[in-house]
Amino acid sequence: MTQNNVRRLWAEGKPVLNGWLSIGNAFTTEILAAQGYDSLTIDQQHGFLGYEALAPMLQAMKASPVTPLVRVPWNAPGDIMKALDAGALGIICPMINSRAESEQFVSCLRYPPHGQRSMGPTRAVFAHGADYGKWADSQVIALAMIETADGMKNLKDIVATPGLDGVYIGPADLTLGLTGRKYPTGFDREEPEMIEAIREILARAHEAGIKAAIHCGNSAYAARAIGWGFDMVTLLNDVRLLAGAAKASVDQARKLIGEQVAEAAAPKNAGY
């Protein structure tokens, strides 16, 4: 079976740089997969895509060594199992609020007797090898999102879930869950109480012997999170990367064009 490179990097004590895909398109997936990320996550929760787009996006990643992950829409067995059967090597599940929800999530990623996953890896056997069924339980990654007040309250129990590989922090929802509308929503939190909460999740995860990941809005914050000890950081998604690059290009062009127009309109020195 295909080795999960995220697991390999973690075994070597190295952090994972994760990209994020919200545009339902195989070509944009192929482009980002070639840019050097360790893993790429297809976002079915908030991304502009459904299952019919998910499958070709996973296929497009195959040309690169990037590890394919999927954030499913919810903690629903059907969504989780179909994403795995399509070839995902890891699942990020949103809004895990209790030990029971975490146990249900993990059970969907493991075949009996360790879970309830149904056997039918339609594409996974072609993407990852004919022996997929034998090794999938040890290669597929389960990441539970901690992003609510209940998730924080039940954090110790959640991180102790057998078979859970790590927790994934959604800073925007976590800020809403812990502070309401006190602060603007966003990724890179600077409020002392939010940094304390983020670092508590990190500490509890490591105490339980599992990994911790966080969604970041820029490279500087991602590096800072790695410095805190995070095992995976996610950078900007494809939507923001595209918008940011386009805006920077347009702004630069308008500036240069404005300078040319101003120069052309300036009075010419006749030389006397």
UniProtKB/TrEMBL annotation:
InterPro entries registered for this protein in UniProt? Aldolase/citrate-lyase_domain, HpcH-HpaI_aldolase, Pyrv/PenolPyrv_kinase-like_dom, Pyrv_kinase-like_dom_sf
Sorted alphabetically, the keyword list is:
Lyase, Metal-binding
Give the domain of life: Bacteria
Which Pfam families would you find in this protein's record? HpcH_HpaI
Record GO terms (molecular function): aldehyde-lyase activity; metal ion binding
Q: Where is the HpcH/HpaI aldolase/citrate lyase domain?
A: 20-212
The record ties this protein, via Gene3D superfamilies, to: Phosphoenolpyruvate-binding domains
* Protein's UniProt keywords contain Metal-binding: yes
What family is reported? Belongs to the HpcH/HpaI aldolase family.
- Name of the protein in its database record: 2,4-dihydroxyhept-2-ene-1,7-dioic acid aldolase
